[in-house]
Write a structure and sequence with these properties.
Residues 6-77, 106-178 form the DUF357 domain. This is DUF357 domain-containing protein. It comes from Methanorbis rubei. By secondary structure, this protein is mainly alpha-helical. It has one domain. It has 6 helices and 4 strands; from the N terminus they run H-E-H-H-E-H-E-H-H-E. The chain has helices spanning 3-16, 26-50, 54-73, 97-116, 127-151, 155-174, and strands at 18-19, 77-78, 118-120, 178-180. It has a two-stranded antiparallel sheet with strand order 1-2. The chain is globular and about 50 Å long. It starts with a helix and ends in a 9-residue tail after the last strand. The model has no long low-confidence stretch (mean pLDDT 96).
């Protein structure tokens, strides 16, 4: 898939997403924060794309999709979800290769650190605990998928999976499923 197509697909999904609860409730307030992140990354991704920064555009779309998909799975949002990052088939200009390599390695490191400094907060007998376990499993699966892709030399698609998994983890933290035991700067709180 071309990055522009991926971004347009994400923008359509992001603009159609809605909160599942009134804004004056805790669930509605959290939903509004998740929607804000979804919207911001749709906007930011298109700004990066128009400036020719295909690396940050793709990462923004994938990260935002992580927030959108997590928000829908957790019941904060109504919307169209993805099945994970779409495969980017677009050739990245040579001038962006170093930027892509640096960002992919940085996101791998950051997601490793972030995943290692959170704990599940809800009691083990609650549905929210099971939701946290599911989010954690998705983050782990995306991280492992990204590493597999990275080992083939496909840094663009590895970055998309690292970014998507990071979106899930950030949404889990923002929604109260996880507590931060380490560097709070790794999260958008």
């Amino acid at each position: 898939m071309l990055i522009q197509t991926y971004g347009e697909k994400y923008q359509t999904a992001a603009s159609a997403a809605t909160a599942t609860a009134p804004a004056d409730t805790a669930v509605g307030s959290t939903a509004a924060e998740i929607l804000e992140m979804v919207s911001c990354y749709a906007y930011d991704g298109m700004v990066f794309y128009r400036k020719g920064d295909l690396v940050n555009a793709s990462a923004s779309f994938a990260y935002g999709y992580g927030w959108l998909d997590a928000g829908c799975m957790l019941g904060f949002l109504n919307g169209t979800t993805s099945t994970g990052p779409s495969e980017i088939t677009e050739k990245i200009p040579e001038a962006l290769h170093e930027h892509l390599a640096e960002k992919t390695r940085r996101y791998k490191r950051m997601l490793t650190e972030a995943a290692g400094c959170v704990v599940i907060l809800p009691d083990t007998e609650t549905p929210m605990y099971r939701a946290a376990v599911k989010v954690q499993a998705i983050v782990t699966a995306e991280f492992n998928r990204a590493n597999d892709i990275f080992s083939t030399g496909d840094e663009m698609n590895a970055l998309a999976h690292f970014s998507y998994g990071y979106g899930w983890l950030d949404c889990g933290v923002r929604s109260g499923l996880f507590g931060i035991t380490g560097d709070r700067h790794l999260f958008t709180i």
